[in-house]
Input
Amino acid sequence: MHRAPSESAPQFALGELAAQLGAELIGDPAKLVSRIATLESAGADAISFLANPRYLPALATSGAGCVIVSAQHRDAAMLRGAALIAADPYLCFARLTQLWAARSRREDTHAVHPSAVVHEQARLGRGVSVGPLAVIENGAVIGEGAVVGAQCYIGAGASVGAQTRLSAQVVLGADCHIGERGIVHSGVVIGADGFGFAPHEGRWIKIEQLGGVRIGDDVEIGANTCIDRGALDDTVIEDGVKLDNLVQIGHNVHIGAHSALAGTAAVSGSTRIGRHCTMAGGAGVVGHVSLADHVHLGARSVATHSIHKPGLYTGLFPIDDNASWEKNAATLRQLHRLRDRIRALEKNSKP
Output
């Protein structure tokens, strides 16, 4: 179904987009587009993109007013109309969405809502916006241009860097810190207690978590993700890390710069993850191990020991009906015995 553009929707001239995105324009620079859409759903008012050659057939039939393509697909794009030629169409698309968001996002009021509770010893930089019913405790520091959404809680001695945006109902615990230009989505809890208990006579005795959380610049944290404070030292998330929704980061974890963890990934306490690592959905790492830089874990894989060599690692057991799965699982438990028997047979069969 074609979607009618809103009266408040942003509009861009193709010439302006070409200049800001560093792309070559084929077509009328004065032509306006007012939305971004897929090749299949785009109309004449929309701009779309082709990054995966598998969707090349959809390019010819797309009604988009303009498409972003690589030089490889220049001729195909020219047959159907206006085009932006980019070295990396997907990167160009990402930057296009940023332009769109910046123009369409409502301007923040840069004010403290009357219902917010801000301690007199908290420090707010210029241009800070604080939403309804937010609480900012003693000694907290909010950087210039930061946004604290409705019902957020900023603990004592915590800090939020300049231009960082906290969506509604984010918790940043006492003595926890996030750097500049961060994006934190609703329901995130930063600085909850780590899972630390000492067994004693059949009961669990709580170990107080005395560390904090330190998060770098340009970090994005998805909805309902939890990052636990350290037991003694801080939990550390370096610059540029991206965490999806429902990710669990245990106490004293250290995640290197520009790593990315997809939905429901979980990292146990005192684990160290290198730079530029990725963890696909549902992947996990047990506690007290290390992953080298550029280690990538496949979906539902679990790293049970340290990995010192970069690469893609996958640990999956194929899904099956329960009866078959139980038989296969029982067989797997006997593999070491089967291996020993085969070795013995091979040894005895040699002349």
User: Anything to note?
Assistant: The chain has three domains: 12-104, 117-313, 321-351.
